Each structure stands twice: as C-alpha cells, then as structure tokens.
C-alpha cells in the first residue's frame, strides 16, 4: 500500500514538473526549475520514446544552465541516439571544458567515434581515461575498451582487457562469464588456467572460476581434469546447469555414456527441455546398444525441433539396428523431405530398400549419393553391392569401371570388378584383376568374399589367395 501511495505521489510530482516545463517552454509564468528536475524531464521523454521532445528539453535546460556538464552529456547521449555523431562530439568537447572527470564523457565520446568508424581514436580516448579513473569506473572503462576491440576484431586484446578486470576484481561475474567465451575463441586455454587457479586459490568458493577452469581443460581435451573442476562448481552451486551440460559433453568425449546420461538428465531437471540435450542422451543410449531408449529420446528431441532432419535419420538408424526396415523408411522419408540430397540419408534409405529386396528403388537412392558425392567411396560400394544382389552383373561391371575412374583406382573396386567379371564368366580377366587387387590391398579380401561367398569354390581364386599368403609369409 505504501508503494502504491509512493508511486502515486511520484506521478503527481512528475505531472506538476511537466506543467512547469510547458509553462517555461510557452513563455508563461512558472516556478524555478532545478538542474536535477531538467534531468528528470529529459529522462521522462526519453523513457517514453519521445526523443525529439527529450532533445528539445535538453536544449532548453542548457539555455538555463549553460555550464552544466551533466546536461551537456545528456544532450550528447541523445544526439548519438539520433545518429548525429559530429554534433555529439562537439557537445562533448564543450562538456569537457567544464568537467573532465565524468566517466560518461569518455564513454559517450567512444560511442560516437565508433559510430564514425574511428576505432583507433576510440581506443586512444579510453586509454587516456584509464589513467584518470580507479575502482569501478576503471572497470567500466575496461569493459568499454573490450567492446571496442571486439568491434575492431582485435580479439586477443578483448581477452587482455577482461584479464585486467579480473586482476582488479577477481569475483567480477560479468568478466568471468565473458572471458570464458573469449578464452575458447582465442585458444588461450593453457594461459587462462593459471588465471583461474589464482582466483580459486584466493576465492575457493567462486563457482564461475571453477567452471572456467573446467572449460579451459575441456578446450585442451583434458576431459578428466575438466570433469573434476565441474564437480567442484556443482558442489558450490548444485543448480549450475551449464556445468552439468559441459560435464555431459566431457563424459561423451570419454565414451562414458552412463555418466553422461546421468548429468544430462540433471540438466533437464534444472532448465527448460532442449532438443540438443535429448539428442545427446539418445546418442549415449545408442552407443550403449539400447536402441529403444535412444529412439525414445531422439523422438523427444524431434518433438522440440521438428525441422532437424538429422534427428529423423537418427531415429531411423535405431529401427535399422532392429531390422525394422519399414519403420526406418518412414523416418528417412521425413528426413529427406527436409534435406533431400544428404548422402547419409540416401545411403540409409537405399540400405532399407535393399533389405526389402526393392533393388530398383535402392539403386535410385544409391545413385543420388554417387551423383552428388562422386568421390564418396561408400556410395559406390553400396550401389555395386545392390546391383550384385539384384543380379544386375553387367551393370555392376560398368559401375565398377566408373568407380575406379572417379576414385583413382581404389583397391576395393578392383576386388568388386574382379567378382563381377568372374560372375559373368570372364574368368581370365577376373583373375587378373584379383591378383592386382591382392597386390594392392590384401586386407580387403574379406569384402571381396562378402560380395559373393561362393567365390571360394573357385579353385583358381583359392590358388591366387593361397599363393599371395605364402608369398607374404
């Protein structure tokens, strides 16, 4: 009730002040308006998005108090807001004559110079100001200087400014949050570790410093150390969701999927559900072989982000792992509606069609991969395997030739070419190709046999394989 009365009194006082101002403006009798009252009037118009009225009030106030640096700064601020940067700088020069100790003078001058694309001059202004101020004002100037360097794309200097702030004020949250980003961006992880450790030594319960230390270790791929540091951060603040999130990523990098699931589920408890978290949990279950739980979480992710084709593909792969080809096809159709030429989606669709003996359909999808990514070996392999299963041996031979030409004679296609030639009765040429393939890449013999297991009934083939193995003993 007291707050309501106070608010009502404020409105009444403001209305009275505005009436006095309008009387002054229109040449009518009015009580004397103090300098601070003019500031309130200017702020009133500015807060109500009436910038022209605010500017006019600033000009009238300066006519009443011509030596007020505060009112001159207020006018300069409004001029900058209306993109009148040259005029703003002139007003700021005038204000500096009356009071050069107001930090706003230097910040506004910097803003105007940056707007005029004069970054170097802006840096000079702030460097000069840093010699004049201490404490919180100096920190404000360093933040301003960091922003200037950001605009100037001097990213290492942004980091340096934030480091200076933390040397002055180790618990400055804004600087700690910002330097975490710039540490990663500039790659200065190793250097930053010493900074964070020093802060932690002096302030061991600073959870942001622990988080930053962990992130720096993570940037150096020292995931175990990162996890240890994140653990300290969440002991201090058990609701530190970003620490859980990043810890989940570290566990994933270490392939500790059960631990990753545990901390990522904590993220879901603490924050609004996100598709990336559900996807990461799904990925963890997937890698553990629990396709049902993987699919459950992928579906939760796709519910939150139905335009992410990758999620439909991941759901499809869980069905493929269970030989549920029709279900997988439905998901792949969704993925292909969003991004029709992604090789992985077309390869998967081709595999599903091939498993259902829909060979002509499968060939279409494998051909899309080959046409869009001709140097992608997986596409050619799948296409040739499909043609072989469909008993289109002559076409398989032609595709082997094409694959060899485009992939610069990859040995796998020499093996496949040999198999296809032997299948159509071109025994001499097929055996020559087999010898050539064995000379180049004997480890690929397994794929040669997988394409046509009955080939081992051919004595000539067995002799070539045996001769090569004997030769290599």
Class from helix and strand fractions: mainly alpha
Strand-residue proportion:
under 5%
How large is the radius of gyration?
35 Å
Give the mean pLDDT.
Answer: 90
Task: Choose one word for the global shape.
Answer: elongated
Give an account of the 3D structure.
The chain is an all-alpha fold and 473 residues long. Helix content is 78%, strand content 0%.
Provide a short characterization of the protein structure:
By secondary structure, this protein is mostly helical. It is built from 27 helices and no strands. Helices cover 78% and strands 0% of the residues.
Q: Which properties best describe this structure?
A:
473 residues; mainly alpha; 27 helices; disordered N terminus
Layout of secondary structure:
Blueprint: H1 2-25, H2 35-47, H3 51-64, H4 69-81, H5 85-98, H6 103-115, H7 119-130, H8 135-151, H9 155-168, H10 173-186, H11 189-202, H12 207-219, H13 223-236, H14 241-253, H15 257-270, H16 275-287, H17 291-304, H18 309-321, H19 325-338, H20 343-355, H21 359-372, H22 377-389, H23 393-406, H24 411-423, H25 427-440, H26 445-451, H27 459-471
Helix pairs in contact: 1-2, 2-3, 3-4, 4-5, 4-6, 5-6, 6-7, 6-8, 7-8, 8-9, 9-10, 10-12, 11-12, 12-13, 13-14, 14-15, 15-16, 16-17, 17-18, 18-19, 18-20, 19-20, 20-21, 20-22, 21-22, 22-23, 23-24, 24-25, 24-26, 25-27
């Amino acid at each position: 009730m007291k707050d309501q009365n106070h608010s009502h009194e404020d409105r009444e006082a403001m209305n009275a002040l505005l009436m006095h101002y309008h009387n002054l403006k229109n040449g009518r009798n009015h009580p004397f308006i103090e300098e601070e009252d003019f500031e309130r009037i200017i702020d009133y118009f500015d807060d109500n998005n009436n910038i022209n009225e605010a500017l006019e009030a600033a000009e009238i106030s300066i006519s009443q108090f011509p030596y007020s640096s505060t009112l001159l700064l207020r006018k300069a601020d409004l001029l900058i807001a209306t993109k009148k940067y040259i005029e703003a700088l002139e007003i700021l020069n005038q204000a500096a004559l009356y009071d050069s100790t107001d930090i706003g003078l230097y910040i506004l001058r910097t803003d105007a110079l940056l707007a005029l694309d004069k970054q170097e001059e802006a840096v000079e202004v702030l460097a000069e100001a840093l010699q004049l101020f201490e404490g919180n004002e100096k920190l404000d100037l360093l933040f301003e200087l960091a922003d200037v360097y950001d605009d100037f794309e001097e990213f290492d200097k942004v980091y340096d400014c934030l480091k200076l702030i933390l040397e002055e004020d180790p618990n400055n949250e804004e600087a700690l949050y910002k330097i975490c980003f710039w540490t990663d961006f500039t790659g200065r992880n190793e250097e930053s570790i010493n900074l964070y450790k020093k802060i932690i030594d002096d302030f061991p319960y600073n959870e942001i410093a622990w988080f930053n230390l962990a992130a720096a270790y993570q940037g150096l791929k020292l995931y175990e150390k990162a996890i240890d540091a994140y653990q300290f951060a969440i002991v201090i603040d058990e609701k530190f969701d970003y620490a859980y999130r990043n810890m989940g990523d570290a566990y994933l990098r270490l392939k500790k999927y059960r631990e990753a699931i545990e901390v990522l589920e904590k993220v879901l408890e603490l924050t609004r559900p996100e598709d990336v978290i559900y996807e990461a949990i799904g990925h963890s279950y997937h890698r553990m072989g629990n396709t049902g739980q993987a699919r459950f979480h992928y579906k939760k992710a796709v519910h939150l982000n139905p335009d992410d084709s990758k999620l439909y593909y991941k759901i499809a792969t869980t069905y493929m792992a269970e030989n549920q080809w029709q279900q997988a096809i439905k998901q792949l159709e969704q993925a292909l509606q969003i991004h029709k030429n992604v090789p992985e989606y077309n390869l998967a669709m081709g595999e599903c069609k091939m498993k259902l003996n829909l060979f002509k359909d499968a060939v279409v999808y494998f051909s899309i991969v080959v046409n869009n990514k001709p140097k992608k070996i997986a596409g050619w392999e799948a296409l040739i395997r499909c043609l072989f299963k469909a008993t289109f041996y002559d076409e398989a031979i032609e595709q082997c030739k094409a694959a060899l030409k485009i992939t610069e004679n990859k040995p796998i296609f020499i093996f496949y070419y040999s198999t296809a030639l032997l299948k159509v009765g071109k025994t001499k040429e097929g055996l020559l190709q087999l010898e050539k393939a064995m000379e180049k890449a004997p480890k690929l013999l397994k794929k040669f046999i997988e394409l046509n297991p009955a080939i081992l009934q051919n004595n000539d083939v067995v002799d070539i394989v045996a001769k090569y193995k004997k030769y290599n003993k």
